[in-house]
Amino acid sequence: MRVGVVGAGHVSAQYRETLAGRADLDVVMVADRHAERAGQLAGAFPGAQVCDTDDLLADPAVDVVLNLTTPAFHAAITRAALAAGHHVYSEKPVAVDRSGLESLAVTAGSGPFLACAPDTVLGTGLQTARRVVDSGRIGTPFAAHAVMVTPGHERWHPDPEFHYRAGGGPLFDMGPYYLTALVHLLGPVATVTGRSSRPRPVRTIDRGPRAGCDFPTEIDTHEVAVLEHAGGALSTVVMSFDATATTADPIEIHGTAGSMTVPDPNHFEGAVSVRERGRRTFEPVPVSAGYVGGGRGLGLVDLASRLADGAPPRASGAVALHVLETMLAARDSARRGGAPVRVLSMPPVPDPVPLRDQW
Ligand SMILES: NC(=O)c1ccc[n+]([C@@H]2O[C@H](COP(=O)([O-])OP(=O)(O)OC[C@H]3O[C@@H](n4cnc5c(N)ncnc54)[C@H](O)[C@@H]3O)[C@@H](O)[C@H]2O)c1
């Protein structure tokens, strides 16, 4: 498949690692508002051309658009690419507001495929955990805890402001990893309640040429939610750009026959452990499913191989839209003082990934 990349910023280096030299995916065009960034990325792919975003989206020589822009631009670029007949793999979140959600829900699903990050959910950590749940080893899952805390991305990102403006925040930035994992493990969400707060109104950039610059926090940065899954399980979610650290596991799943720890869903690999009812300790679970050695771009590789088989991508656009609707519901609920908000979409849970060393 011929790939056109829009957005050649920070994360594109990770995609370059995965995509450079692959026979199944050929990066043919790169666009960025900063032409020099596009040029740098294109340099890693022999024959790739630097061009305008509009030219890339209109070019029939592109089969799939890889949308690596900042979140506020995701929906418009994805919608234009789908409308032009290209498949799309987008970075997360798939969109940042209801109008983006609604326009993509109409455009996606008819014709070209929409796939979306996170693709970490296809790695061995989450897929091994999924296999445990599907096997019945922990009985019927009835609860999950998902916890992500960091003092903020301004510690490492040279241009962190977008994380603290509309469309940013911990739930929209990191929530897609955790909520996508929860949907793969426990099924879609039916109802959400949420609350949020803004403990630090000013941030300071730590690294890079603008180190020391202050900027305002324009949105809430400590967000909590309770998700009621359609199957009845209750997930408690804590996402914070304010807390210093935590000792909590990134995700725990509790079932009628046991409890399971799930590794960081921001990573492709990590240890899964299970403590069955009546046992005294958590036991490690051997790796038993997922793409081994994954990196960002794996979801695009999966999209290409699934298309060859006529199957929908496992980094499912339908799940990404559902996760966005769930996050919007959490924020709506928080605005209404914690009143429950229903989630209407009900996507199929993507197929599991068998253990795959080569991909
Ligand atoms: N930085 C990371 O480690 C990381 C990790 C995982 C996911 N992500 C996600 O990747 C996305 C990009 O993040 P980033 O850190 O690379 O941001 P970034 O600001 O470093 O890069 C984004 C790039 O997109 C370009 N761009 C924005 N709008 C454009 C448009 N309309 N047309 C053409 N180019 C446009 C910008 O010029 C910039 O070069 C975000 O959605 C983020 O959540 C980032």
Domain tally = 2
Low-confidence stretches: none
Shape: globular
Q: What series of H and E elements makes up the topology? A: EHEHEHEHEHEHEHHEEEEEEEEEHHE
| SS elements, strand count | 17
Sheet-strand content, in percent, reads 15-25%
Structural class: alpha/beta
Region (Disordered): 336-359
Pfam family, one: GFO_IDH_MocA_C3
Keywords: Oxidoreductase
Domain GFO/IDH/MocA-like oxidoreductase: 127-260
How would you describe the overall organization of this protein?
By secondary structure, the protein is α/β, with parallel strands linked by helices. The chain folds into two domains: 2-116, Rossmann fold, CATH 3.40.50.720; 120-290 and 314-342, Dihydrodipicolinate Reductase, domain 2, CATH 3.30.360. The protein has ten helices and 17 strands. The protein has helices at residues 12-19, 35-42, 53-58, 71-83, 98-107, 124-135, 170-173, 175-186, 298-308, 317-335, and strands spanning 2-6, 26-31, 49-50, 64-67, 87-90, 114-116, 141-149, 189-197, 202-204, 214-216, 222-229, 234-240, 251-255, 258-262, 272-276, 283-285, 341-342. Helix 2 (35-42) links the parallel strand 2 (26-31) and strand 3. The protein is globular and about 60 Å long. Residues 6-11, 31-34, 37, 53, 68-71, 73, 91-92, 159, 173 line the site of nicotinamide-adenine-dinucleotide.
Throw out a few tags for this protein.
alpha/beta, six-stranded parallel β-sheet, Rossmann fold, 2 domains, single chain, 359 residues, globular
